[in-house]
Structure formats: C-alpha cells, structure tokens
Write a structure and sequence with these properties.
This protein is α+β, with helices and mostly antiparallel strands. The chain contains 6 helices and 24 strands. It has helices at about 5-30, 105-135, 140-150, 165-170, 175-190, 235-240; strands at about 45, 50, 55, 60-70, 70-75, 80-85, 95, 100-105, 195, 200-205, 210-215, 220-225, 230-235, 245-250, 260-265, 275-285, 295-300, 305-315, 320-325, 330-335, 335-340, 345-350, 355-360, 370-375. It has a 6-stranded antiparallel barrel. The protein has a 4-stranded antiparallel β-sheet with strand order 3-18-22-21, with no helix packed on it. A 4-stranded antiparallel β-sheet has the order 5-12-10-7, with no helix packed on it. A hairpin with a 5-residue loop joins β14 (about 245-250) and β15 (about 260-265). α2 (about 105-135) packs antiparallel against α3 (about 140-150) and α2 packs antiparallel against α5 (about 175-190). The longest helix has 28 residues, at about 5-30. The chain is elongated, with a radius of gyration of 47 Å.
Length: about 400
C-alpha cells in the first residue's frame, strides 16, 4: 500500500471521529437544563407538650386473688369416736354459723356428770337445815339455788358469799369444791360438741364420721365464705398511694362484672421474690357470694390526689429522670422530679410551666440537635436555596 493511501485513511478516520464528537456535543447542548433541586431543611420533627401543672388523680389496676377472711383447723378437744353432726363431714360441704359440725362420743362423760350433780344435790339437802339455824338471812338465797338445779342443765350461779363465817362453813362441807368441780366437768362435756364458728365450707377433711380421734387431732380444715378478701400484691413504690379505708372497684376476669370493696389491711413487710407488698381488700358482705376463694380479679385502687403535677409517656424519659425540651429550635436536656410511675406514663414536676417537653422517645439524638415542633413546620420558613422559576 502506498503512503498516499495510508495518509488518506488516517485523515478520514480523524474526520469521522471529530464529526462524531461534534454531533455529541450538539445533541447535549440541545437537551433542556434540569432545574436545581432546592436545599431541603432536614431537621426532624418532634412531638411536644406544653408543661401545665394541674391536680392529678392516678388510679391503679392490679390483679389479685380472693382468699377467705378466716381459715382455721377443726381440732378435737376430746378423744373418742366421731359421731354425726348436723352436716356431712366431707370436703366441700358448706355450713352455717352455729351448726353442729360433729360430736365426739360423750355418753359416759354425760352420765358421770349427772351422777356428780346428784351427789351435789344430796350435799345441799343436808346443808339447808344447818343454814336455817346458823345463817337464817342466807337461807332464802340457797333454797332458790337448790330448786334451780337441773340434772340436764348447767348448774345455776351460786349465791355470792360475802360473810367470812359462811365461807368457812361452805368450805368445810366441801360445797365450794364440789360446785367448781362440776362447772369444770360441764366445760369438758361441751368440748365433745363441735360448732361452726362462722358460715363456711370444708377444704380438707382428715377424719370422717365413725373415725376415732385423739385429743388435739386435726379433724378438718375450713374457710369462711361470708367474709371474703382479695389479696393484691402491689409493687412497693406504688403501695404508698394506697390508704386503708380506700373504696375500690373489683372486676371479674370471667364476665367483667364489677363489685365494690374496701382496703382493710396493708402488710408491713415486702415479699423477697416479687418486692411487692400485700394489700387486702374486703368484699362487701352483700357481694361475698359472688366471690369464690382462689378466684382472680382485677382491683382498681383510686389513687391519691397529686397537686401541681403533669403526666407524660414513660418512653419520653431516659436515665430515669431526664427529658428533652425544645428551646429556640434545639433539644436541651433537663432533669425532672418523678412523683409516681405508672405502667405507661409517669407523673412529674420540676420544669417551668410553659416549657416545651418532648413527649415521645427519641433515638440517635443528642443535645443541641436542631428540631421542628410537630404541627408547626408550615409556620416556619425553610432555609436554603429555592428553585428558580422556569
């Protein structure tokens, strides 16, 4: 190939590449210029509340368990065979106050007591003639006492002895010793009959009818059903807001029905495991039949009135007592005085009224961060270059 052809080819390539570059620049210059995007204000918006102190009453809902107002053991005070009472001696049996729960075999003891009373009547019979002679002014009282003695009933009260000579006379005849010995046996006989001390039910029965029991044997365990309380474990920090005598609302977990009660006791110790304090609420007697021991309920304590305070979400507070406030468009840390902590909120004071306290949790922020107040962004002019009108 001659040098002339080579030179021609090189020149042609240069012309073609130059033409392509020129056309590209021409096409680019013909594309309309895009408007510049304005600088956007990237400040975050935060939810705030204006500090305004008022009187706050903060109720407290806590679950609790119904318990009997009394739980006692039915203990035998005499030994012998258990005989039937007015109700069946079986677990779950209900009874009324004053009913005979069971009897310990007492026939022999009863007969022995009657024999002793008969002997006492003999003693009194031989005593009256001597009283007529030596103490005529006391005869009428002792005759009345003698006539009132009944073998099937307790001995009547003996006339009061004020005369020293009469006291010596009665003691020498063995009257006083026999009288008080019989009164003691009467009390022993009564221990053979076991009466219900309250309206209740048996929760456990260890000895049934026909069994032999020794003195001190635990026949059964029983609970009171006409006096029901609800034991509510309350965190110690919240227990100070509950006072004895507070009227409370009790809500059933099964049907959401409500009854009323009253705080009657507060334990003077803290449970180790739960760090809670037991509050005892007595159910009104008219509603006691609606509450079964062992059942769970929600109890609403009214709480106490807190003057000059404000409530905000717990998430807005960090490090226990620190919040953010907005001052001149920037976040500032401030300490508050926490009065009461609830499940989702807390009650505080310590900030000046009118301050803008942040009422939401903030993540990845620090003090002096520029912010907007949520709801006020449109009222503030945006900073930065604005787009030029086309």
């Amino acid at each position: 190939m001659s040098w002339r052809k080579i030179t021609f080819i090189v020149v042609a390539l240069i012309v073609l590449l130059g033409g392509a570059a020129a056309l590209s620049e021409l096409f680019i210059s013909m594309k309309p210029e895009q408007p510049k995007r304005p600088d956007v204000d990237m400040k975050r918006s935060v939810k705030v509340e204006t500090v305004n102190y008022t009187e706050i009453t903060s109720p407290l809902w806590v679950p609790g368990r119904a318990v009997s107002g009394s739980e006692v053991l039915l203990v035998a005070e005499a030994s012998g065979k258990i005989e039937p009472g007015a109700i069946a001696l079986r677990k779950g049996t209900s009874f009324r106050k004053g009913q005979v729960l069971a009897e310990i075999y007492k026939d022999e003891v009863e007969l022995a007591l009657k024999a002793r009373k008969a002997q006492f009547l003999t003693t009194m019979t031989s005593l009256l003639p001597d009283l007529k002679i030596d103490f005529p002014d006391q005869l009428n009282a002792y005759e009345t006492f003698f006539r009132a003695i009944d073998l099937d009933s307790d001995l009547p009260e003996m006339p009061v002895v004020q005369n020293e000579k009469l006291k010596i006379f009665l003691a020498s005849r063995g009257v006083l010793t026999e009288y008080y010995g019989i009164k003691q046996d009467e009390k022993r006989l009564k221990r053979h009959t076991l009466y219900a001390p309250f309206d209740g039910t048996f929760t456990q029965v260890n000895y049934e009818t026909g069994s032999y029991v020794n003195t001190g044997g635990q026949i059964a365990r029983m609970i009171r059903t006409d006096h029901v309380e609800i034991e509510v474990p309350v965190p110690n920090e919240d227990s100070e807001w509950i006072k004895i005598g507070d009227q409370v609302k009790i809500q059933s977990n099964k049907d959401q029905s409500e009854i009323e009660g009253k705080v009657v006791r507060k334990s003077d110790f803290i449970e180790d495991e739960t760090q809670s304090r037991s509050i005892f609420v007595m159910v009104n007697k008219a509603d006691a039949d609606k509450v079964l021991p062992g059942e769970y309920f929600e109890v609403q304590f009214p709480g106490q009135k807190i003057p000059e305070a404000m409530e905000i979400p717990r998430g807005a507070v960090f490090n226990s007592t620190t919040v953010y406030v907005v001052i001149d468009g920037e976040l500032k840390k401030r300490e508050i005085n926490v009065i009461k902590r609830n499940e989702t909120t807390l009650i505080f004071n310590g900030l000046p009224e009118g301050a803008k306290v942040v009422a939401e949790p903030l993540i990845n922020v620090k003090e002096n961060t520029p912010v907007n107040i949520l709801g006020e962004e449109e009222n503030k002019p945006q900073r930065g270059n604005q787009a030029k009108p086309q």
